[in-house]
Every structure is written in C-alpha cells, then in structure tokens.
Amino acid sequence: MSNYKNCRWFMPVNILLTFVIGSMLGWLLLIIARPPQHLKGLIIGTCAAGNLGNMLLIILPAVCKEKASPFGDPDVCYEYSIAYASLSLAIGAVYLWLYVYNLVRVFAGPPIDSGNKDVASTDETVTVQEDLTRTLLPSSLSSTNINGKSKVMLNVMKQQLRNFSRHINLKAVDAAIPIVTLIVGGNLLRGLKGSGISLPIVFGIVSVKYVFLPVCGILMVKGAIYLGFVDIADPLYVFILLLQFAVPPAMNTGTIMQLFGVGESECSVIMLWTYGLASVSLSLWSTIFMWLVS
C-alpha cells in the first residue's frame, strides 16, 4: 500500500471532477427534459453531489473484512479506509456548500421570506468582510513586501482557527448526524404521497448517477493512473476514487432545498428512488471496481 500522505492529494481533484462532470450531465438532462425553473437547481444539485461520507463509511469497512478482498490485511485496510472515507466526507461537505448551494441559490432566486433579518444578516456579512479586508490589506502597499503580507495573512488565519476551535460545539455536531437522517426520513415519507416531478426526470437522474457518472469515473481514474497521478499499487485508494463516482445523491441536498423552500417534495421522490436503487447499483459497481483494481 502506497504512502497515504503521498497519494491523498489527488482525492480533492477527483471529488471536484465528480461534481463538475455530474453537473454537466445534469445540465444535459435539463436540456432534454425541460423541467420547471424551480426544479433546475434540484436536478443539477442531485446529479453533481454524491453521498461521499456516510456511504463510504458503511461500505469500505465491510469490503475490507471480506476474505477474497484484494486490499490486503483487514486491519490495515480498515485503518486506511476510515482515513480515506473521513477525508472524502470533509472535502465533499466543503464542495457541497460552496458549489451546490450556490447552484440552487441561482436557480431558486431570492429567499421566500426575506425580511429585516436577511438585510441585517447581509449587513453583518459585509461588515465582517470589510474588517477582514482591512486586516489583510495594509494601508500602504508600497511599504509592505510579499513576505510581510504572507505573514500577516498566516497570523490572521491562525487566529481565526483558534477562535473557531474555542467556540465549536462538538455535542451539536454529534446531534447533527441523526437530525440529518431524520430529515431524510421525513422527506422519503412525503415522497410516498407523490409530488409534481415526472418519472422521466427521476429516471434521468438515476441514469446519470448510476450509469453515466460511474463510466466517466472509470475513464477519469484510468487517465489519472496513466498520467502518474495515482499509484496503481494502492488498490484500496483506486477503489475509493472509483466508488466516489457511483454513490447516490448527497443527503444534505434535501437540507439545501428546505433552506430555499423549493422542490422539497420533488427532492423526497428523487431520494426515494435513488436510495432505493442504490443497493443494486452499488453492489454491481463495487464488483466491477474490485475486478478492475485486482
């Protein structure tokens, strides 16, 4: 198994590729299906963002314990799989809220209940940005060299991280995990009652997530191996990179739709179908991926 520190740099690139390629395929689906305006962000979001955390944490330890596993010693495999899955979870969450959130915001338009609180929040955000700008940028650029500015920025970042670590509430973070699960369960229950989304759109999303995106993933990862970006000697790492292209939509997509108050029932139907078919799709693609890395 190759050194974890040396090969992990490609994972953020690979996850970004899943988002970009997924959103491109979602855009093609928009052109073909021509859904209502308020559903465009939902369709692109579900095609782009995958469940890169919980699904990997469930699948990888089970795969490592298989007797015919190509990943070597089960204990070593388990240790590396948890590390890779945790890294995937962290990077995927950042991309989700930076990329998908803004995609949905663009297509959803302004929030429905935008009042004085939103204005005050915007003013506070602008004030924070102005304060940070004044902190990072010196009053006289000519009197500060590049190294000096870099040191100032580094010190500010360290101070912000220390302040963040003091105020973080781990109990709230632990509580967020079951709450998200409950939200998804509630959405699935609503989906059973039906919604306005058409079945062709649902099947189109399923095709993107479980057919076209995994095929693109094989091509991307094979290309990365050919260019020397990924070490073929680490089959577990290659397997995870491939698996990131085949997971169902991110559960937090439903949370984003609820924040904007659009497409909530439609999102529940998409989640119902995609997660219902995930057991078949993930079993099939996991078998293919394990055969490719063996």
TrEMBL record:
Pfam family, one: Mem_trans
One Gene Ontology cellular component annotation held by this UniProt entry: endoplasmic reticulum membrane
Annotated localization: Endoplasmic reticulum membrane
Membrane topology: Multi-pass membrane protein
Domain of life: Eukaryota
Example GO biological process: auxin-activated signaling pathway
Keywords: Auxin signaling pathway, Endoplasmic reticulum, Membrane, Transmembrane, Transmembrane helix, Transport
InterPro entries named among the record's database cross-references: Mem_transp_PIN-like, PILS1/3/4/5/7
Functional summary from the UniProt entry: Involved in cellular auxin homeostasis by regulating auxin metabolism. Regulates intracellular auxin accumulation at the endoplasmic reticulum and thus auxin availability for nuclear auxin signaling.
Entry's family note: Belongs to the auxin efflux carrier (TC 2.A.69.2) family.
Stated name of the protein: Membrane transport protein
